[in-house]
Design a protein that fits this description.
mainly alpha, two-stranded antiparallel ribbon, two-stranded antiparallel sheet, about 55% helix
Length: about 210
């Protein structure tokens, strides 16, 4: 099923995205610096602050800027679903259908794949994650030239920002609004952060 979903994701990103009028996207036509900083500050406000985590605000701002500038080096010209996760995929007769793409915009290839494979409560085993990453790479290279090592490095970086954004959502809905489902999801997202600590090379630049 995940392989079917990945095939459809590539169709979204490259085939459908090729002649897409991104000016019609609401609220942001492009996953740009403003969008990325929004996600990082969403995490800072709704999770770090809600948990009373101590940090140097000036240093964090500098590191956020470095992180944003790094992510913006990824090719940013494809359709980005924005919330590509299992909860937004409906199976009917074993075929996937998709909902909740109103946040779609122009963006990088890596983000949606990272969103799918690093969904916190899905807990996809590392071996399967890697198999699906390689499956995606083998397919996407039929349509666009992709360098595996470069793609993988950005993939882990976008996985990191996705996990931080998810923690921001869990913080808002769970820690602040006290909704138990979101509180229960926090440990799974933290596990993803620990996993990414040694894989997201961008952390070595901060």
């Amino acid at each position: 099923v995940y392989k079917k979903v990945i095939r459809e994701l590539i169709r979204f990103q490259i085939i459908a995205g090729k002649n897409f009028d991104y000016s019609k996207c609401h609220q942001h036509p492009v996953f740009d610096k403003e969008s990325i900083l929004f996600d990082l500050n969403y995490f800072k406000t709704n999770y770090a602050d809600a948990k009373n985590i101590n940090y140097n605000n000036d240093q964090l701002k500098t590191e956020f800027d470095i992180f944003v500038n790094y992510l913006l080096k990824s090719e940013n010209k494809y359709f980005m679903f924005r919330d590509f996760q299992a909860r937004n995929i409906i199976l009917m007769n074993n075929e996937p259908y998709f909902i909740d793409y109103q946040g779609g915009r122009q963006g990088p290839l890596e983000y949606d794949l990272a969103s799918l494979l690093f969904q916190a409560k899905a807990q996809i085993p590392e071996k399967i994650k890697n198999q699906l990453l390689n499956y995606y790479l083998n397919l996407v290279r039929l349509f666009v030239p992709v360098i595996k090592e470069e793609f993988t490095e950005f993939y882990y970086a976008f996985a990191l920002i996705r996990v931080l954004q998810t923690l921001g959502a869990y913080g808002l809905r769970g820690l602040i609004e006290n909704k138990s489902h979101f509180i229960e999801s926090i440990p799974f997202a933290i596990d993803n952060l620990v996993y990414l600590k040694d894989r997201a090379m961008v952390l070595k630049k901060l």
